[in-house]
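Project channel, design review

CF: Before we commit to the Proteiniclasticum ruminis constructs, I'd like one complete example in the thread so the newer folks can see what an input/output pair looks like. Taking Threonylcarbamoyl-AMP synthase.
RD: sounds good, go ahead.
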Amino acid sequence: MDTKKVNLKKGLEEDVFRTAGEVLQSGGTVAFPTETVYGLGADALNPSAVKKIFEAKGRPQDNPLIIHVADWEISPYAKEIPPKAQEMMKAFWPGPLTIILKKTEIVPLETSAGLDSVGIRMPSNEVARALIRALGHPIAAPSANISGRPSPTNYERCVEDLDGKVDMIIGDGSSIVGLESTIVDYSVSPPRLLRPGYITYEDLLGIDEEVVYEEAKTRVEEEEAPKAPGMKYRHYAPKAPMTIFRGETQKVENEILRQIDEMIKNGKTVGVFAPIERKSVYNGKNITFVSMGTQSDLGEVARNLFEGLRRFDDAQVDVILSEGFQEVGVSRAIMNRLKKAASFHIIEV
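CF: and here is what came back for Threonylcarbamoyl-AMP synthase:
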């Protein structure tokens, strides 16, 4: 497939969106920026178009997609919108919040992965909303990467993963959030937080104190159908196996240093993923150090997370040793992604 690639430099270029809209209307696929991560979009109401997303990504067919809207009228796609869900929309849309609702028949089962519910989000990114308007109705879009790999937060990573697999790629800088949207399920009672994100659990409780979050429920068993993206399969993962170390700072540093020496002695190339404040700790070791950002700014850590994981692939390290975080606020979302990237291999020290 010959992928049309456009990296926007002058804002919303009308001819680009005319072309992209035609691609989507004809059942094609377009990768595009959002404030969370880059998405791979197709007409959410066209079953054959939606299937092309799964094919391009190598995505399991039982992994549901989120539909992205550009305006507030979602009643054609949702059977009912509970009052608290409406309050969530008013508080956090447009933005990085997905709300799961009982779907109407207009949303194909291919989009919802056979479920009677669908996740809906209104992105704040202007390019994303312009693309949705160019199509004329919702776009179904997971992250624009090969399934299981770290999500792309810039144009270059989209091209790396999807060139030759999709019809068009639109670039427009780096994602400002860097983590996929928070997902809260209002198709059940009480509502459940299924995927933490930049909009935190604490933020949600400020609107609806009945929202429940159970960490053990964020990874479903093989025989179960996931209700939201990122719940069942290995996600966000670099090529090398990764271990997370969590605990008191000095103990974490000491254990990582010990493991570095042991890995190098065994002929392994080692990557270390940690806040920039820790770089001096690992100086002098023959490793690839990738900074998460400063530990005093979790928003920066979130923005850097996926690109940092991809840099270990660039360096072709054999193993990755990552520092972890306590899980509160945005760090809950950061750890959610890190744990899945590490296949839940965590060492408490």
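RD: helpful, thanks. The domain at 242-348 is CATH 3.40.50.11030 (Rossmann fold).
CF: The chain has a mean pLDDT of 93.
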